[in-house]
Amino acid sequence: MITIRPESISERDNYKFLIGSVIPRPIAFITSINSEGVVNGAPFSYFNIVSSNPPLLSVSIQRRNGEKKDTLRNIEQQQSFVLHIADDGYIDKLNQTAAQLPPNQSEIALTNLTLIPSETIATPAISEAKVRYECTVQQIVDLPNSELIIANITCYHIDDELYANGRINAAKLNPISRLAGNDYAHLGETFTLERPQ
């Protein structure tokens, strides 16, 4: 087994080890809005659940060359955003939103994704996602080269075809996850293990 101390390698090598081994990672497609009303859309795979009581999510947004990304600045200003679960139905358009655009240009307009209003916050959502969460900021933690956002879910939106008896059908959701480089994955084969009593 190879043993490497993180401080002995470059940031890029640390990045490659992490994204190559912490897999698959769910993808959050986030819409946010700036003070001029421009809607930003961007994917993030440093994302997960924090708590179910209350329902909290986490998203880490790394800085680019030391500068905060548009999504983070918008979230800091508005204290809200919409988090969509990436699924197979709109993954190609989602990928297009990863392009680096100036703050006054919307990635949503570039991809022809369909904006719709939210119920509990001013930030609009996209209709193509089968699952989305309206979120408000609980806390933003400043880290050395990123910010960790802890978000309250204020409203769930779940496509009718996915929902039955209080549960979501994962196969019908057909989520897309992030691997390393340009690689992604579908849900794939699943199995069941009973927890020990």
Provide the fold topology.
Blueprint: H1 11-21, E1 25-26, E2 28-33, E3 39-44, E4 47-52, E5 55-62, H2 70-78, E6 80-85, H3 91-96, H4 107-111, E7 115-116, E8 125-126, E9 131-143, E10 146-158, E11 163-164, E12 167-168, H5 170-173, E13 177-178, E14 184-185
Antiparallel strand pairs: 1-13, 2-3, 2-6, 4-5, 5-10, 6-9, 7-8, 9-10, 11-12, 13-14
| Helical segment count | 5
Remind me, CATH topology of the domain at 26-45 and 69-137 and 155-179? Pnp Oxidase, Chain A
SSE ordering: HEEEEEHEHHEEEEEEHEE
**What share of the residues does DSSP label as strand, in percent?**
35-45%
Radius of gyration: 17 Å
Supply the CATH superfamily name of the domain at 26-45 and 69-137 and 155-179. Electron Transport, Fmn-binding Protein, Chain A
Mean pLDDT: 95
User: Class by helix and strand content?
Assistant: alpha+beta
Please mark out the parts with pLDDT under 50 across 5 or more consecutive residues, or reply none: none
CATH architecture of the domain at 26-45 and 69-137 and 155-179: Roll
Enumerate the strands of the largest sheet in spatial order, edge to edge or round the barrel. Answer: 3-2-6-9-10-5-4
* Global outline: globular
What descriptors fit this protein?
5 helices, 197 residues, Pnp Oxidase, Chain A, single chain
Protein described:
The structure is a single chain. The radius of gyration is 17 Å and the shape is globular. The two termini are 34 Å apart. A hairpin with a 2-residue loop joins strand 9 and strand 10. The chain has a domain of 114 residues: Pnp Oxidase, Chain A (Roll). The protein contains 5 helices and 14 strands. Strands 3-2-6-9-10-5-4 form a 7-stranded antiparallel sheet, covered by helices on one side. Strands 1-13-14 form a 3-stranded antiparallel sheet, with no helix packed on it. The model has no long low-confidence stretch (mean pLDDT 95). The protein has 197 residues and is of the alpha+beta class.
